[in-house]
Design brief:
mainly beta; 2 helices; 12% helix; 6-stranded mixed β-sheet; two-stranded antiparallel sheet
Length: 137
């Protein structure tokens, strides 16, 4: 489960900055590489800062592993990837900013975007990879 950030409660407590660390199960539909899936939960480390205009800056990182067939030789492989979180939330959702409503920030879209940006175009097993070649008999 992905936690939320309740801006109203944090403002009432005068907690304008904070950190969080958690993991969540990402949906395999985020992976656009054939025969590849998540092999671990996505680990998240984030920091938030509530600004004077109630906008919130969220920074941090996501870390996850992918497992599946190498895109070149089809050998089973697994690799770990890290991506950055750099998001800006506003109650009005202007431009490219994320929007939050009722004082609560839902992080799902922001985290899914960070994961998708960190996923490579293809999964490769390593430097000694020999491309798979079809042989007709």
């Amino acid at each position: 489960m992905i936690p939320t950030i309740d801006v109203r409660k944090l403002n009432a407590r005068k907690q304008y900055e904070g950190e969080a660390e958690f993991a969540f199960e990402a949906d395999d539909s985020l992976v656009d590489i054939p025969y590849v899936r998540f092999s671990s939960p996505v680990g998240v480390r984030l920091r938030y800062v509530i600004l004077e205009d109630d906008s919130v800056e969220v920074t941090g990182s996501v870390k996850f592993s992918l497992k599946g067939a190498c895109s070149r030789c089809l050998t089973e492989t697994e690799q770990t990837f890290t991506g950055e979180i750099d998001a800006y939330f506003t109650p009005r959702g202007e431009g490219e900013d994320y929007r939050y409503t009722n004082g609560v920030i839902r992080l799902e879209d922001c985290l899914n975007d960070a994961v998708m940006l960190a996923i490579p175009g293809r999964l490769e097993c390593g430097e000694n990879c020999v491309p798979f070649v079809w042989k007709e008999e």
